[in-house]
Amino acid sequence: STPLGQLDPEIAGLIDAELARQREGLEMIASENHTASAVMAAQGSVLTNKYAEGYPGRRYYGGCEHVDEVERLAIARVKSLFDAEFANVQPHSGAQANASVMHALIRPGDTVLGLDLAAGGHLTHGMKINFSGRLYNIAAYGVREDTNCIDMAEVDRLAQEHQPKLIVAGWSAYSRQLDFAEFRRIADSVGAYLMVDMAHFAGLVAAGLHPSPVPHAHVVTSTTHKTLGGPRGGIILTNDADIAKKVNSAVFPGQQGGPLEHVIAGKAVAFGLAASETFVEKQQRTLTGAAELARRLGESDVADLGITVLTGGTDVHLVLVDLRNSVLDGGQAEDLLASIGITVNRNAVPNDPRPPMVTSGLRIGTPALASRGFGSAAFAEVADIIAEVLKAGAAEAGAESGAEPQVIAELSDRVSALATAHPLYPTMNEIGAR
Ligand code: PLP
Fold first, then answer.
1. Distance in Å, CA 301 to ligand 1 centroid
2. Nearest C-alpha neighbor of 24 from the set 319, 331, 336, 340
3. DSSP 113
4. pLDDT of 113-170, one tens digit each?
5. What is the reported pTM?
6. DSSP H/E element including 188
7. Known catalytic residue at 226
8. Whose CA is nearest to atom 5 of ligand 1?
9. Known catalytic residue: 146?
10. Helix (H) / strand (E) containing 222
């Protein structure tokens, strides 16, 4: 048995159970990924012992010579990856990164214009009980009812009407690219800062497969654990020296105390990996997989049961399934997929008639499967499995009874076959409970 296994078998057992769950099922939560073993090795290191308040070369603690180098490497690598002049790699999470930028650039009571949560925005873009909604005056833009896409003329109109100090572009559940140049034009026209939160699509940007917001935005925030495939955490990028200075003091001491240098080491490893050809090829498969999923769902006969793809397709790593016209709701669809070993999350769609805990949508993403080695044939198979289980569920009377047990058993076997054919962390037996 391992040291953790001996010392704390309860926790070790749970970590092993989670590893087995990830290995045996298919993770299709759009905000998740399977990070590299090397990233986890850095995170599980002695760097977790070190206090390092401040920034490299300007710390409030002694003994920082090695973590200084770790943090300098992380900064240099992420600047080069995204072609940005300044970077802060200390935010503990995406939410902390966004809070820090708001703290740096605007004052409580100022107006922020961001994408409505109900239309695919993030909590930190102005949800009522989030810090953003409590501290700032929020004016939200949504999506057009006919296309389910953001209408830049409407963003412009709202900006002129509300005169925000900060405009936020970025999303958690949206399947199309944003017009960063137009967002910047609108921000400039009202004297607002433009913050782009690229948390979801950062990996695509790093691979050169999605337009970069860095040349357009005053400041760009991101998580490091979604398409980017690193450890859980946040980053802030800018090309403006004055903004960089304000952001640094907003992160520390404004929002946080000691940085998580073990996580920053994991970020550095991930930024190094993201600069490789292998990473670009993986992001390409991520995109192809999502496009294939949208196409197959769109062409399958689930449309006859009121199940469609929101916006008719995708430009990114996720597909939004619209269940507004189906007897199947988001919660039931999530449970059905879970019953065959596919993990996704229910998600509200624009103008959702069902309550937030139920919803009329699913958000399905391909990054984790791409990290597992899925190529187009495997993505086609998983798309067909998803279409079949949704069809079986929706065809059952009122969906109350779920799908037929033999259909579930057969589809579960097909999921298991895909999982077995794409082993996760194949060379590490006990990656969690070492
Ligand atoms: N920004 C966006 C667009 C997100 O989707 C998320 C997380 O889902 C976050 C920020 C917050 O990241 P974290 O969960 O690390 O705080």
1. 34
2. 340
3. E
4. 999 999 999 999 999 999 999 999 999 999 999 999 999 999 999 999 999 999 999 9
5. 0.96
6. helix 180-190
7. yes
8. 172
9. no
10. strand 219-223
Residue 135 has which token pair? Answer: 């501290």
Helix/strand/coil for 309: strand
Reported residue count of the chain is: 434
Q: Is 245 labeled as catalytic in the residue annotation? A: no
Q: Which of 53, 116, 151, 410 is catalytic?
A: 53
Cβ-contact 372, 331 below 8 angstroms: no
CB contact at 8 A, 67 and 52: yes
- Distance in angstroms (rounded) separating the CA atoms of residues 407 and 88: 50
Phi, psi at 396, each rounded to 5°: -65, 145
Ligand 1 interacting residues, C-beta cut-off 6 A: 31, 93-95, 98, 122, 124, 170-172, 197, 199-200, 223, 234
Active site residue 111: no
Three-class secondary structure of residue 320 per DSSP: strand
The Cα 189–Cα 71 span in angstroms is: 37
> For all residues of the chain together, what is the average pLDDT?
95
What is the distance between the alpha carbons of residues 286 and 206, in angstroms, rounded to a whole number?
A: 13
End-to-end CA distance of the chain: 9
- Model pLDDT for residues 394-405, shown as the tens digit of each residue: 887 454 555 688
The strand order across the sheet containing 166-170 reads: 86-88, 234-238, 219-223, 193-197, 166-170, 111-115, 137-141
Q: How many other CB atoms sit within 10 Å of the CB of residue 343? A: 17
Structure-token pair, residue 137: 């005056």
Distance 95 CA to ligand 1 centre (A): 6
Residue recorded with tokens 């953001």: 150
The DSSP code sequence of 340-375 is: TTEE-EE-PPTT-SS-TTT-SEEEEE-HHHHHTT--
Q: Give binding residues for (6S)-5,6,7,8-tetrahydrofolate as ranges.
A: 117, 121-123
Q: Best mutation site among 92, 124, 132, 168 for ligand 1, i.e. most ligand atoms within 8 A of its Cβ?
A: 124
92 CA closest ligand 1 atom index? 15
Which of 23, 72, 79, 232 is catalytic? The answer is 232
- Indicate the SS3 state at residue 196: strand
Model pLDDT for residues 330-346, shown as the tens digit of each residue: 999 999 999 999 999 99
Cβ neighbors of 164 (< 8 A, separation 6 or more) are: 110, 111, 112, 113, 139, 190, 192
Give the ipTM.
Answer: 0.99
As a whole number, mean pLDDT of residues 206-211 equals 98
Task: In whole angstroms, give the CA distance from residue 229 to residue 270.
Answer: 7
Please give the DSSP secondary-structure letter assigned to residue 215: T
The answer to which of 98-112, 138-152, 370-384, 414-428 has the lowest mean pLDDT is 414-428
